[in-house]
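Section 5.1 Outputs to date
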Amino acid sequence: MNFEAKTVRKVINKAFLKEPVERAAFNTFKEALRQLLDDVESARQKNEHEEHFKNFLEPFFTSAGFGSYRINTSGRI
């Protein structure tokens, strides 16, 4: 399978490009994403099972401002 790298400008709907984003909200999301990627990389280096990785999603969504949503998982992924 080959992946084609595209820029955000090419893949996002043009209507969303015109929407302003608050700097504080963007920085909050950016920091949450950075923490998620650090956690994933650390777990990957420890050869954790993929089941372990789903535990990183709830803190990511909560700190990124989506705390009112719930994640429902059942069984192994």
